[in-house]
Amino acid sequence: MEEKTIVEKLTADFERIFGTEAEGVFFAPGRVNLIGEHTDYNGGHVFPCALTIGTYAAAKKRSDRIIRFASLNIRGGQITEISLDDPTLALDGSDPGPGRGADDWTNYPKGVIWAFAKSGHKIPCGFDILYYGTIPAGSGLSSSASLEVLTGLVLRELFNLDGVRQVDLAINGQKAENVYVGMNCGIMDQFASAMGKAGHAIFLDTNTLEYKYAPLDLKGMKIVITNSCVKHKLVDSGYNTRREECETALDTLKGVVGGLGSLGELTPEKFDGIADVLSETIAKRAKHAVYENARTIDALKALGQDAVEHFGNLMNESHTSLRDDFEVSCPEIDFLVDMAWKIPGVLGSRITGGGFGGCTVSIVKDEAIATFKETLTKAYKEKFSLTPEFYVIDAGEGAHRIC
Ligand code: GLA
Asked: Is the pLDDT of residue 100 over 80?
C-alpha cells in the first residue's frame, strides 16, 4: 500500500474506532543492518539503514487520564485501555518490571511512556492512538523498535515536549525495551529508526553514539532482504544469553587488560594474544564481537572507496562468524545464505538482526536479481517447504510526522 492510502485508511479507522478525529499521523521505520551484528552491546560499531517500511500511528490527546491503544494488525483494532495512574505503568517511580502487566504488545508503548516519565517528561493527560505496521511480524526487521520510537515521537509531538531530541527517541525506546519489556537489546535498532536518512546507511559507534551517514549508492546493485519466514522471538531465544556470555568475557579480560571498558576496544590482534584466558565457548563469542567490529570499520572504508566486492566479502565473513562462533543462525538461514553465495552477481550475503531466524541481507547486481529470487525460492521450497519473501530496499528516513 502507498503511504497516502495508509494515511487515509488510518485516519478513517481512527474515527471509526475512537469516534473522534486524529490530531496527527506519524511514522517510524524498521531497519536492516548491513554489517556489525551483536556489536552494539559490546561497545562496537554497527552499520544499519532505516527502511521505508515501518509503523504508522494516528493519535489525539484526551482531556482525562485514559490512554486507549489499538492496532490494525492485532485483534482487528480492539482497544486496550489503561489509566496513567495504573500501577503497572509505574509512573510513581516504582520498579516497572519486566512483566508487570500482561504479556501484550501494548507493553512496548507503555514502556516508552514509563521511560519518558523516568527521564523527566511526565505525560499530562491521556490520549488515543491507533497503530498500523507494515513490517512482517517476527522478520527481525525491528518492528518493536519502530513501535517504540514512534510512540516516543507521538508523545513529543502531542505534548510539545521541549528538549526531546531525535536521539532521545532512540534512547527512551531502548530503555523501555530493556527495563519494561525485559529484552536486553542494544541501541542499534532504535537508533536506526529514529536517525535514519534516505539513501544513506548509518555508521554508529555504540560506545559514544557518534555517527556518520554513508551514502548508499551502489551503482548497478541493490540491497535485497530475504525473509526466511522462520520467526524469531528474541526474548525467548538465546539473545540475552549471548549478551551475558559477552559480559563474562569482558569481566575475565579485564583481569588481563587493565581499564578495559568494552570488547569493542580490542583489535583482533590484541584479542588473539589474550584469548586463552577464556573458556572455549566464551572465547568464540568474544572473538565474534571483536572481529565483527573490525569488519564493520573496514566496511565503512570499503563503501567510501566503492570497493563493494570487499564489502560483500566482509558480509560473508560476518555470516560465517555468526554461524560458527556466535551461533545465532539456523539451518534455514544458512541454506539461504549458502545458495546466495553460489549465484553469480551476488556480492555478499549474511544473516541480519538478532538471529535465530528472520532475514538475510544480500548485495545483488541488478541483472542477477531475478535469478536470485527464482533460485532461492525453488531450492528453499524443496528443502524446507517454505516460501521466502524478498524485499528490494531503499534506505528510508528516520521517524517523522507525516501530517
Ligand atoms: C537485535 C537487537 C540489537 C542488536 C541486534 C544484533 O536486533 O535489538 O540491539 O543487538 O539484535 O546485532
From this structure: no
